[in-house]
Amino acid sequence: MLFSEIGLGPEVLRAVEDAGYSQPTPIQEKAIPWVLQGRDVLGCAQTGTGKTASFTLPMIDILASGRARARMPRSLILEPTRELAAQVAENFEVYGKYHKLNMALLIGGESFGDQIKKLERGVDVLIATPGRMMDLFDRGNILLSDIKILVIDEADRMLDMGFIPDIERIVGLLPKMRQTLFFSATMPPEIRRLADAFLMNPREITVAPPASPAATVTQAVAMVRGEDKREALRHLLRTEDVKNAFIFCNRKRDVALLHQSLTKHGFNAGALHGDMVQSKRTETLEQFRQGEIALLCCSDVAARGIDIAGVSHVFNFDVPHHADDYVHRIGRTGRAGKTGRAFMLATPDDSRTLGAIEKLIGREIPRIMIDGLETPDMSEGEGDGGRRRRGGRSDSAAKVGSRRRGGSRSDAASEPPREVQAEAATVAEETVEARRPERPERSERPERQDRPERGGRDRDRNRNRDTRGETREGGRSEGSRNDTRPPRQDDRGEPRRRWRDEDDGPTVIGFGDDVPAFMLRVARPVARTVPPETFDGSDTPEA
Ligand code: AMP
């Protein structure tokens, strides 16, 4: 099918042609006609499939007629991260260039003043992260009664980031008569429940491929000791033909340390993580996009959806805690049919997590050895993916003893990593960019102002959000994916245990002999006394 046959208007088609696309991707082919007909759509698709255009193109056509009034946006697109929101806004700019639609991007970390001014002028398309959106709503800067189209993008990621209560609240404020487009890479029961609640007789469209990194990405894993990781990385950076690369760390602090270290060793590197101010995040990403920075040390804030053409390499300085993050991370390379190379450094403590990744992608990642570095005995690890320690140096690695350079290398060690390509793990590509259905990057929480309508416990939580800004990273706790509570971290970025977990103390808080009056009035099940999205006040999120 050609774009010209899909039912879009001539201006949109011209913009699509200018962008260089002649054929819709499967999600576009399936979704656009239904969106144009005004139907609700439930799309099971991940980034990289052309999903964004599947809703932006028909929305531009639909919104072309009609005018927005001050503070009353006509459509709303909710995105889990600022970067994704900004990318959607870029899509509107590219495809909407022959229309005169007003767009506002409401994301945290940027001035309220400018965003309010835009809202005052009237916007046709409002693209927002839930936290900033609710802030502006609570301040009275947005009226939601004119929303005709709602897009909830990356719903499963919203769930992972604890945004679902916000989403439910926002949807409750919208007119019942509206068109809703709901996209999620995966459909766990909680997401299905939301889809059932938000959508009316939707067309269901699934284009999610199985867990499969792009066929164009060559993968390898180097077994190293924790204390050798930086040296191993430098070795790979020097021996590989690296044009540009994402270098993923599990923790924000490690991103900063690795960035410093690489800079000290003369590499042209930048850093990107959720603790940085938004202007710096945007600037760094743009510098990387433009090639001014060759290496981007980053957290998982960059793992999902960031679309930069021609990235030659991805390095996993840390084995990601969650297997699906591996697929998201390496999906930053090998995009749009180009080849890419993905290397990971694994220590003995990572053996279990590495095993989970290989199980997910359905094959073993070829092992390589780094010239001049000892390969540790992987059985010495404690199999926890190195979570207890920062900086990659694991307890067990420390036990291995002094470095024995070159002492235990196998024949494979003398081969340059590039030659691993022949035995690289490759799998069939099914879409523009076939990858594992993208799971939410656990990267950030929105900053928010007080929410007067919520109870004290929530106010405490919001205060924590406010002071920390969008600092959550690697924040998904060890709990169920369906848990809608925001993840918590300790001051080192480690996921914190919940009060109900293990040995953190009693799971019932007593009042001694004093029984408060409210307890005498209503008998409720104990498990319901703490709403699912709230925390024990003694264990608040990272400030
Ligand atoms: P998305 O899934 O929206 O993140 O899109 C992934 C990439 O596919 C982006 O770089 C888009 O520009 C690109 N893309 C979108 N639509 C098409 C198309 N019809 N043909 C080829 N590439 C596309």
TrEMBL record:
Q: Name one GO cellular component term.
A: cytosol
**What EC number is given for this enzyme?**
3.6.4.13
Question: What is the uppermost EC class here?
Answer: hydrolase
Entry annotated with the keyword Chloroplast: no
Q: Which reaction does it catalyse?
A: ATP + H2O = ADP + phosphate + H(+)
Q: Pinpoint the DEAD-box RNA helicase Q domain residues.
A: 1-29
Which UniProt keywords are listed? ATP-binding, Cytoplasm, Helicase, Hydrolase, Nucleotide-binding
Query: Where's the motif Q motif?
Result: 1-29
SMART domains, per the entry: DEXDc, HELICc
Output the InterPro entries linked to this UniProt entry. DEAD/DEAH_box_helicase_dom, DEAD/DEAH_RhlB, DEAD_box_RNA_helicase, Helicase_ATP-bd, Helicase_C-like, P-loop_NTPase, RNA-helicase_DEAD-box_CS, RNA_helicase_DEAD_Q_motif
Boundaries of every Helicase ATP-binding domain copy: 32-205
Renumbered to this chain, the Basic and acidic residues biased-composition regions fall at: 432-501
Which CDD domains does the record match to this protein?
DEADc (cd00268), SF2_C_DEAD (cd18787)
Output one GO BP term.
ribosome assembly
Checking PANTHER family in the record gives: ATP-DEPENDENT RNA HELICASE RHLE, ATP-DEPENDENT RNA HELICASE RHLE-RELATED
Question: Belongs to which family?
Answer: Belongs to the DEAD box helicase family.
- Name-wise, this protein is DEAD-box ATP-dependent RNA helicase RhpA
Which species does the entry assign this protein to? Nitrospirillum viridazoti CBAmc
